[in-house]
Amino acid sequence: MSKHIVILSGDGIGPEIMAEGEKVLAKVNERFNLGLSWSHELLGGCAIDAHGVPLPDQTLEAARKADAVLLAAVGGPKWDTIERSIRPERGLLKIRSELNLFANLRPAILYPQLASASSLKPEIVAGLDILIVRELTGGIYFGQPRGVRTLENGERQGYNTDVYSESEIRRIAHVAFQLAMQRNKKVCSVDKANVLEVTELWKEITTEVGKEYPEVQLSHMYVDNAAMQLVRNPKQFDVIVTGNLFGDILSDEAAMLTGSIGMLPSASLDQQKKGMYEPCHGSAPDIAGKGIANPLATILSVAMMLRYTFNEGEAANAIETAVGKVLDQGLRTADIWTEGTKKVGTQEMGEAVVAAL
Ligand code: NAI
Ligand code: MG
């Protein structure tokens, strides 16, 4: 079986953090004899500079053929003034939809060493380990019709359409239940079924899918309450499954519980477990080129890739354990630095993880 990864370093801090992700990948590949290979392609601003488009055909073809894609981040002020349809972020949206990556997994895990970096009280977040499963290719972000129209009275009106078909709900629900089976066997489906018909269907289908997983405890929550519960008592959750819009908002909210965006990986999967793995943050142009960006979200994205696409749970665990070890050693990049810890740069952090492995 081929096990090939396409690496997209992108823009801004992308190449700096990806260099460290690659060192970790090379280390686990050797230590666990994984037989992985990888190659580099262009996506985002760097692709615009080289080819005039953010997602060149060559990149898309290589990504289609690969088993997984590892991305750092794209975008930056240099490309903010060009026409919207060929901006770096468009390349990202396009590769996600072309690869049909409908399941976005965003874990929010608090490393105990970083408890003081969270904005919530330590007792509320200590031991936090939740997983948000967000539907990524449907809902109001893609629904038609959409636009801004002028009414007969001359007033303009903006509109979008929230749509989900049964099959779209069913496949994301299965992903959530299957992941819950490997965790604490709890799924909370978040909707607004008291007001929105589309989420009434969401509730009905998730309930139906839930019957196929009798070991998993399914609950339903309205999104406004879920937003509140995430800051009141986040540890009540195990897996949260929700649509594109609610998932976007709730996953950012959950991310902040853990302290820094520099720590958070993500996975976007298709039906066959092919996936694109990337840190949740962007290209951080404000700190690019300074060697101070936190590479851990990218390194933890490598771990997610090994776990979900390549079924190499042991190697994934080893990376996560190594990250814990470097935090135990008191090493911190600037974004997670607190009094009494040792401030290190991007490269030093990456190499410490390799050494811990
Ligand atoms: P951002 O996530 O790049 O930065 C937000 C803040 O977090 C900045 O202060 C930055 O320095 C800091 N930060 C981010 N990652 C960090 C890391 N690894 N270590 C330390 N600090 C880190 O978001 P922003 O500023 O809104 O966007 C910058 C560019 O990135 C824009 O062009 C945006 O479109 C793009 N972007 C790309 C994404 C992607 O490729 N998936 C996602 C989000 C934004
Ligand atoms: Mg968002």
From TrEMBL:
Chain residues that bind Mg(2+): 224, 248, 252
Residues binding NAD(+) are 76-89, 282-294
The EC number(s) given in the record are 1.1.1.85
- Sites binding substrate sit at 96, 106, 134, 224
Q: Where is this site: Important for catalysis?
A: 141, 192
- GO annotation, biological process: L-leucine biosynthetic process
The record's Gene Ontology cellular component field reads: cytosol
Protein's pathway: Amino-acid biosynthesis; L-leucine biosynthesis; L-leucine from 3-methyl-2-oxobutanoate: step 3/4
Query: Which of UniProt's keywords are assigned here?
Result: Amino-acid biosynthesis, Branched-chain amino acid biosynthesis, Cytoplasm, Leucine biosynthesis, Magnesium, Manganese, Metal-binding, NAD, Oxidoreductase
Cofactor binding annotation: Binds 1 Mg(2+) or Mn(2+) ion per subunit.
Q: What are the Isopropylmalate dehydrogenase-like domain coordinates in residue numbering?
A: 4-353
Query: What SMART domains does this protein map onto?
Result: Iso_dh
GO molecular function annotation:
3-isopropylmalate dehydrogenase activity; magnesium ion binding; NAD binding
User: Where is this protein found?
Assistant: Cytoplasm
For this protein, the record's InterPro entries field holds: IsoCit/isopropylmalate_DH_CS (IPR019818), IsoPropMal-DH-like_dom (IPR024084), Isopropylmalate_DH (IPR004429)
| Reaction catalysis annotation | (2R,3S)-3-isopropylmalate + NAD(+) = 4-methyl-2-oxopentanoate + CO2 + NADH
> Gene3D superfamilies given for it?
Isopropylmalate Dehydrogenase
Subunit-structure text: Homodimer.
Cite the NCBIfam families for this sequence: leuB
Q: Which family does it belong to?
A: Belongs to the isocitrate and isopropylmalate dehydrogenases family. LeuB type 1 subfamily.
Q: Describe the task this protein carries out.
A: Catalyzes the oxidation of 3-carboxy-2-hydroxy-4-methylpentanoate (3-isopropylmalate) to 3-carboxy-4-methyl-2-oxopentanoate. The product decarboxylates to 4-methyl-2 oxopentanoate.
Protein name (Swiss-Prot/TrEMBL): 3-isopropylmalate dehydrogenase
Source species of the chain:
Fluviicoccus keumensis
Q: What is the lineage of its organism?
A: Bacteria, Pseudomonadati, Pseudomonadota, Gammaproteobacteria, Moraxellales
The gene behind this protein is leuB
